[in-house]
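Work Package 3 (structural annotation) set out to generate three-dimensional models for the target panel prioritized at the project kickoff. During this period the team completed the workflow that converts sequence records into discrete structure tokens, so that structures can be stored uniformly alongside our sequence database. As a representative example, we reproduce one entry of 431 residues exactly as it appears in the project archive.
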Amino acid sequence: MVHHTMKTSKTSAPSASSNNRVMDQISGAARAKVGVDGWFGVARSPGTQTLRWIAAACIVGSLAACTSLPEPVTLPPPTTPVVPPAPVADGTEPLPPAMQRGKSRWTPVRWAELPGWGQDSLHEVWNAWVRGCERPAPGQAALCAEVRQLSISTPAEQQAWVVRRFVPYRVTEPDGSVPDGLLTGYYEPIMDASRVPTATHRTPLYGPPPGLRAGQAWYSRRDIDTLPAAKAALQGSVIAWLSDPIDALILQIQGSGRLNITEADGSQRQVRVAYAAHNGHPYQSVGRWLLDQRAIREASWDAIKAWAARNPHRLNDMLWSNPRTVFFREEVLSELDARFGPRGAQGVPLTPGRSIAVDPQSIPYGTPVWLATQGPTLNLQKLVMAQDTGGAIVGAVRADLFTGWGGWSDESYVIAAALKQPLQMWALWPR
């Protein structure tokens, strides 16, 4: 999926509470975007049809409590049990040579050099790994049969297998220098919507108009709102109606969302809207636009909504400062689909707390990644899977952690909005 990112400058937040809609044990040992270089920085444009989204900044802080993972997916038992090979005697075998990637250099290291290695409950990442095997990373398809079989093994057996089959590589800049890195977060917003326009729901979410061509500039956001020709071209393309144009913008930046939709007959159900296309115009941050005018002091959605409430006559000026409009497709949300996030750029559903977006020119989709970060929002040392990308996710040591789904007060949003801190990464590659 693809999204843009915006981060907040706030540094305190309420304690995390259990929420089965958000990431699994996101706080790890101790887990949309916001801000000029975060959520408000760049919108996601999907790798596999999921845009990356911005959600807004919230009050952040040290989150000591762990949240719970959505109920794990039941996997079929293996036909043949896997007997994990004995781990390699780490520290004695020769290391392979370093590998040069497009935007990074991978330097092999010993397992003992990974901070916190051996303390992560690997079974929590196994669902994400199994889903990733639907579209495995280059050179890893042969290992996927073992990944699936190990889904019912113990964490110790899984760890022994990982050590045996993979080499950890420290991810650095192409010249070998070690950057500070950056970890941000994103989520899948849940919003109320109506199938038909009402007195309160008047902001449309569009599907792609007929004849839209990828890479070709179509009508701008202002044009769509004002030109009769643009409105005529979109006739019949409305998926649903929202009550707030800023909420619609948030969905477009995040690239995906869940709608609690009221149908024309008054019945209600939840559906997913996923990125389908955009109008070919460059993304511009409305948060940056307001900051440049000194209209707000921090680029958070709370600040933006407060400004809009005080300046309704300038709301369109702010919205039109971003000429890009995103078009969606509606997806049925089955019981199984609801236990995972939207599909990322790898083409597989995202797992809260265990899926990250990366720069694919630094780390290929489907790669297991050891992530280490310390900051005011999270202290993490855990295994995650590179399964998505985003417009603001650029560079060697850059990742965006998928935190789950929820509304404005849910932990998935609070953490995603606040997360912006240094990062270290080690890619695991088959021996």
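Confidence is low (pLDDT under 50) at residues 7-21, 27-87.
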